[in-house]
Specification:
The protein is of the alpha+beta class and 410 residues long. The chain has 15 helices and 12 strands. Helix 2 crosses helix 3 and helix 2 crosses helix 14. The two termini are 33 Å apart.
Length: 410
């Protein structure tokens, strides 16, 4: 995981587990949490209840009872995911904000590939993790980002309508009565509501076009007082604005506006250095246009908020292919706008690391509570990893200055 657990880290881990134990409010649950979390930290290839129990047991006879205890902890134990995740978020935020502010909340989703049909919420559906339609569960997450660190603080399982309306499968997978069908946007807004209620710091919400296409999603973010940087579909209609932010009468879709701006409007922007594996700077061509979104919600055009339309023309493409809207202020430089919007792409690396190193997608149970309990433990583990990395690799003064400029502009 990029660090070794020395004596100091072990002491900090013990203190962290003690804080989580208060939220668990039960000696047996505290013991099971510690066993399961250490299993996720461990080096086993598979990180589900049975192999974790085997690693934690002194002999073969102790393995089966330990396995059943972990299953009860995950499937049947009535502890609060929100309370436990709140402890993890507090732990991560305290470390992440020593030198830098939280600059963004990031909404995204990831697939949990499955073989069978009985795991809660599983069906054939598109997942960006596989880049195709696959038999999988989908989890929607809310993450926090500084210029140097990135950590998920909440997760919700997407429950398809066929599952939500099937009494037999609901009973088999222990889906609570108050859990019904919700779109991914609705799940995201519920997590944002919880984070706002908990006083989590932040200034801008980032998400891809699946979320940004929703007028309700965009409006709810603004009601909370946040800015947004959201991908949109190229067919989204809007009015261009002139230099005095007066509306040009005819509404056009984003793709048409990109063509109207022409090749000369696009400028190359480098948003960060690539990793050792990428061996290159991350760069592309971008154009910007002030617009008002044309949404059939009864609001007069004069009352609509002016926003930036951000258009990306990736290298190798015949025409611009990516579009986004952001409410960030005009005084921000174009490079700052691009860099901040691109922060959401780090979420994919977090998913990969949590799946590869912490068994995020290794849960083999079928129940709704079990899935959320497993993910909660993984969130707690990753929060600890992030705080330890911040200790070993604190942000540089240059990064701190850049973070300050974002915070001021937002």
């Amino acid at each position: 995981m990029g660090y070794e657990l020395d004596a100091g880290a072990q002491t900090r881990l013990d203190e962290y587990f003690s804080a989580i134990g208060v939220a668990l409010d039960n000696k047996t649950r505290r013991a099971s949490f510690a066993t399961y979390a250490m299993g996720l930290f461990g080096s086993a290839d598979r990180k589900s209840a049975e192999p974790i129990a085997a690693m934690a047991s002194a002999d073969a006879e102790a393995c089966e009872p330990a396995h059943h205890r972990l299953l009860r902890f995950l499937r049947d134990s009535p502890w609060s995911d929100r309370d436990v995740r709140r402890v993890a978020a507090k732990h991560a935020i305290e470390a992440m904000t020593v030198d830098e502010p939280i600059q963004a909340w990031i909404v995204d989703d990831t697939g949990f590939l499955k073989q069978g049909k009985h795991s809660v919420g599983v069906q054939r559906q598109y997942t960006g993790s596989a880049g195709k339609i696959a038999n999988c569960q989908l989890g929607v997450s809310l993450s926090l980002a500084t210029p140097s660190a990135h950590v998920p603080i909440d997760f919700e399982l997407y429950l398809p309508a066929d599952w939500a309306g099937d009494p037999g499968r609901r009973k088999e997978c222990h889906i609570p009565e108050d859990v019904g069908f919700k779109t991914k946007e609705e799940l995201a807004l519920r997590m944002i509501d919880r984070a706002v209620a908990d006083g989590v710091p932040g200034g801008i919400v980032l998400a891809d076009s699946w979320y940004g296409r929703s007028h309700r999603f965009r409006s709810a973010i603004r009601v909370h007082g946040f800015h947004y940087g959201l991908g949109i579909m190229p067919t989204q209609k809007m009015w261009r604005l002139d230099t005095r932010e007066r509306r040009i009468p005819d509404a056009e879709d984003a793709r048409t506006i990109a063509k109207r701006l022409g090749d000369k409007a696009f400028r190359r922007v480098t948003w960060r250095d690539g990793t050792m594996a990428e061996r290159r700077k991350l760069t592309s061509r971008f154009a910007f246009c002030r617009v008002k979104v044309a949404t059939d919600d009864g609001t007069e055009p004069a009352q609509r908020e002016p926003v930036w339309l951000l258009i990306e023309w990736p290298d190798g493409e015949a025409h611009p292919t990516k579009f986004a809207l952001t409410t960030l202020r005009r005084k921000m430089s174009k490079k700052q706008l691009v860099r901040l919007f691109k922060e959401r792409y780090r979420t994919e690396r977090v998913y990969e690391e949590m799946k590869g190193e912490l068994g995020l997608d290794h849960f083999e149970g079928r129940s709704f509570p079990g899935w959320h309990h497993h993910v909660s433990v993984a969130i707690c583990c990753y929060a600890f990893v992030v705080t330890e990395r911040m200790r070993c690799f604190p942000p540089s003064a240059e990064r701190h200055r850049r973070a300050g400029s974002y915070q001021l502009a937002a």
